[in-house]
């Protein structure tokens, strides 16, 4: 069980990866020791005094020996633009590790990871810790949105690519690759995971249900407090009691849910 902490983390490096995507490395040994695949940290961005809310970022990778964690983010607004301008020796205040992460597959299961956009970063630690090399289906709008392809291959993963514009790999959706994989592999031996935009996750849930399978899906949801106090990040999940669903907090009961739970 992980224990969340609030601490100041010095920036080690903050560099542009490709396009609008950046990687920031932070020194925070206690979180590096504890963080599990699929968990996140809640960061207060410096120089945003008029914006009090923190920003949630999935943990891309950790190095417990060096006491560092790495995050990949995309510039999409004022907060992430400001974050991209931070550099050593700046310090960021963060809370973490937070949330419910992925469960690792058994040695007998073949992990299949479907990831879209910077969902590729949120699932990398999972791929790294799988007991056997996973099948990684990576998708994006363009080739620029395909992250960490070579990193996944260095893990020994079987990597398949999909882009909406056809600039790399299969032209279409990453769920096309998932459907193909389900047709080719022994479904009884698969352990399915997914992280990406909401529309993609909806398609993954629909596809797995049609094959009588389940997947662990990590939701990309707006958050305020990050610790379960404000109920701003709730989603509907199924229950046995009337009316057949209840609200669940993405920040504490997720961000990883079973596809069977999702309404």
Polypeptide structure, described:
This protein has seven helices and 16 strands. It is an alpha/beta fold. A seven-stranded antiparallel β-sheet has the order 4-3-7-1-2-6-5. Strands 11-10-9-8-12-13-16 form a seven-stranded mixed β-sheet. A two-stranded antiparallel ribbon has the order 14-15. Strand 9, helix 5 and strand 10 (158-163) form a beta-alpha-beta unit. The radius of gyration is 18 Å and the shape is globular. The two termini are 28 Å apart.
Run of helices and strands: EEHEEEEHEEHHEHEEHEHEEEE
Estimated structural class? alpha/beta
**What gap, in angstroms, lies between the N and C termini?**
28 Å
Oligomeric state of the chains in view: single chain
Widest sheet: strand ordering:
4-3-7-1-2-6-5
- Shape descriptor reads globular
Low-confidence stretches: none
Mean pLDDT: 95
Q: Based on DSSP secondary structure assignment, what is the total number of beta strands? A: 16
Residue share in β-strands: 25-35%
Give Rg in angstroms: 18 Å
Largest sheet: 7 strands, antiparallel
């Amino acid at each position: 069980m992980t224990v969340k902490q609030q601490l100041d983390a010095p920036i080690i490096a903050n560099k542009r990866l490709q396009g609008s995507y950046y990687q920031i490395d932070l020194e925070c040994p206690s979180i590096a020791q504890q963080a599990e695949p699929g968990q996140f940290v809640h960061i207060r961005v410096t120089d945003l005094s008029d914006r009090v809310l923190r920003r949630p970022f999935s943990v891309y990778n950790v190095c417990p020996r060096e006491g560092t964690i790495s995050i990949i983010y995309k510039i999409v607004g004022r907060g992430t633009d400001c974050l991209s301008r931070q550099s050593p020796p700046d310090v960021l205040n963060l809370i973490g590790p937070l949330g419910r992460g992925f469960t690792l597959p058994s040695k007998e299961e073949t992990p299949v990871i479907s990831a879209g956009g910077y969902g590729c970063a949120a699932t990398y630690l999972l791929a790294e810790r799988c007991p056997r090399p996973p099948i990684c289906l990576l998708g994006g709008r363009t080739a620029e949105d395909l992250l960490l392809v070579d990193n996944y291959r260095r893990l020994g993963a079987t990597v398949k690519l999909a882009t909406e514009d056809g600039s790399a790999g299969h032209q279409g959706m990453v769920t096309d690759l998932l459907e193909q994989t389900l047709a080719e592999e022994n479904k009884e031996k698969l352990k399915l995971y997914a992280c990406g935009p909401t529309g993609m996750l909806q398609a993954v849930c629909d596809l797995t249900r049609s094959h009588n399978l389940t997947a662990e899906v990590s939701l990309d949801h707006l958050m305020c407090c990050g610790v379960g106090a404000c109920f701003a990040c709730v989603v509907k999940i199924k229950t046995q009691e009337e009316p057949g669903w209840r609200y669940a907090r993405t920040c504490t009961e997720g961000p990883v849910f079973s596809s069977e739970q999702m309404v």
